[in-house]
Design brief:
1 helix; about 0% strand; mainly alpha
Length: about 100
């Protein structure tokens, strides 16, 4: 087994430099504000004024369309029922005569 020798590391003769330290700027915190009170709202016009607006016009148009659609559906229902009324007696007459 070969003999091993330890080698010593020579110390450097130069002086060790101080580590550079960086200072961080302190964060400035804004003052925490306390709870604020609500401001009272002064109404410029009374709440229940019957002034028409654009939305009033939209609702009027929608209401008229709904009424027209309901009237059309009733008209179709009456027409279909009248067709059933004309078909049923003829069907009954023919079915009764064929079974005998």
């Amino acid at each position: 087994m070969p003999k091993t020798t330890k080698k010593t590391v020579a110390q450097s003769t130069a002086k060790a430099k101080k580590p550079v330290t960086h200072k961080k700027a302190a964060a400035k915190h804004a003052k925490a504000e306390g709870p604020r009170s609500f401001r009272l709202y002064t109404e410029t016009k009374p709440f229940l004024t019957p002034l028409p607006t654009v939305q009033s016009l939209y609702w009027l148009i929608i209401g008229v369309l709904v009424l027209l659609l309901a009237g059309w559906a009733m008209y179709l229902t009456v027409q279909i029922q009248s067709i059933y009324d004309t078909i049923t007696p003829d069907y009954v007459k023919t079915s009764v005569t064929t079974k005998q």
